[in-house]
C-alpha cells in the first residue's frame, strides 16, 4: 500500500504504482493535488488574481522557486515563533475538528519547524510540477486511464484541494476507485479529525483486514463522493 500527502510525493507515489503495480496492492491518496490544470474553468479566479499587482508578485516569487521554507530559514531564531503562531491558529481556535492539547501543539510546532528549516530538498521541484495556485502543469487526470492499481481518495470536508478532480479521474479509470470524505477536517484531515481519518483508512483497507469486505458499510459520519 502507498499513501501520499505532499504534492511532490503524490507524483512519485503514482509513478511508482504505475511502473511497478506488482508491488502495490492498493493506493491511498490523502488530500492529493495534481488533478486540476490552469486551463480548467474553475481556475478563472487565479487568472484574475495574477492580473493584480499582488498576484503578479506572488506568481513571480513562485516561478523563481521562492518557497515559504526559505522565509522560515531566513528568520533564524524568529522562525519557531512564526511556526508556533501558525500551528496554534490552524489547529487551535480556527480548527474545524479536534483542538490539539498543549503538548501535542508543542510537538507539532517542533516537527513542522524542523521540517521547514531543514536543507531544501523536495520543495525545489514544486514549481516544475505545479503552476502558481497548485494547478498541475501535467494534470494526473490525463493519465487516469493508465492507472493500474485500485485507488482510494480521502479528503476532509473542508479540504482546499478539490475532490471533484478525483471524481473526474474516476470516470476514466479502469481500476476500482472510491472517494471518501471525512467531516470536521481540512487538508490536514489526519490531525483535524484523527478518529474519522483512521476510520476512513480502515475502510479503505477492508479487503485486507475484514473476513467479509463486501458487506462492510461505510463508517458513520464518513461520506462517499
Average of per-residue pLDDT values? 84
Largest sheet: 5 strands, mixed
For the record, give the distance between the C-alpha atoms at the N and C termini, rounded to a whole number. 22 Å
Shape: globular
Helix content: 40-55%
DSSP strand count: 7
Domain tally: 2
- Neighbour order of strands in the largest sheet: 1-2-5-6-7
- List low-pLDDT spans: 1-8
In short:
With 225 residues, the protein is of the alpha/beta class.
Any overview of this molecule?
This protein is of the alpha/beta class. The chain folds into two domains: 120 residues, Alpha/Beta hydrolase fold, catalytic domain (Rossmann fold), CATH 3.40.50; 52 residues, no CATH class. It contains eleven helices and seven strands. The strands form two sheets. Strands 1-2-5-6-7 form a five-stranded mixed beta sheet, sandwiched between helices. It has a two-stranded antiparallel sheet with strand order 3-4. Helix 4 packs across helix 5. The longest helix has 16 residues. The N terminus is likely disordered. This is 1-acylglycerol-3-phosphate O-acyltransferase.
